[in-house]
Amino acid sequence: MRRLLLLAVLCVSGLAAQEASRTPVESAAGRTEESDKIAVWKWVNFVMLAGGLGYLMAKHLPPFFRTRTGEIQSGIAEAQQKKRDAEKRAAEMDARLNALGAEIEKFRTQAKAEMQLEADRIRRETADQIQKLEQQAAREIEAAGKTTRRELREYAAHLALDRAEQRIRARLDQATEGALVDDFVNNLQRQESQN
Predict the structure, then answer these.
(1) In a domain, 166, yes or no
(2) I want to staple 18 with a disulfide (CB 3.0 to 4.6 A). Which of 13, 41, 109, 178 is the partner?
(3) Contact between 49 and 57 (Cβ < 8 Å)
(4) Which domain does 72 fall in, by range?
(5) Overall domain count for the chain
(6) Which residues contact 14 (CB under 8 A, 6 or more apart)?
(7) String of b and e for 154-166 (b: at least 16 CB within 10 Å)?
(8) Residues 31, 25 contacting (CB under 8 angstroms)
(9) What would the pLDDT profile of 23-67 be if each residue is shown by its tens digit?
């Protein structure tokens, strides 16, 4: 930046020197002489300016371009690395997706097998429960049959007793009844005397 400022000062001083050397001449020959001097100074200024700019560009542009080229190359390398990473992640995702289909099929197979095992277990438990219920029903039917047979025997015995009582009452008269009572009392007395 200092050199650029120094170059600008030199250019301005060259122009100032040119203006100071100029004298007003009114003749036609003076004008051409003056215009030749102006043209020479203009060329000198142009050469100085072009030289200064060329020097500055030669000094500062190559490092700038090298730095910029390095940045661009590192950006390209970084982009290529990111591209490789992205491709690697995409390949991993594809592998996962492919494996996911296999995993889903594996889960389906496992679920089907587990459902079959569960259905078999439920069938066995249901068959066991049905067998237990059948056994319990058979026991209840047998118990009900025994109870009914006992009640039927009791009822039959009761009916038989009632029927026997009716027959006995029909055949029993006063004299037979007295003889039976006397006979019963005599039996009791004999048993008492034996004891």
Answers:
(1) no
(2) 41
(3) no
(4) 2-129
(5) 1
(6) 41, 44, 45, 48
(7) eeeeeeeeeeeee
(8) yes
(9) 444 445 556 777 888 888 888 889 988 888 888 888 888 888 899
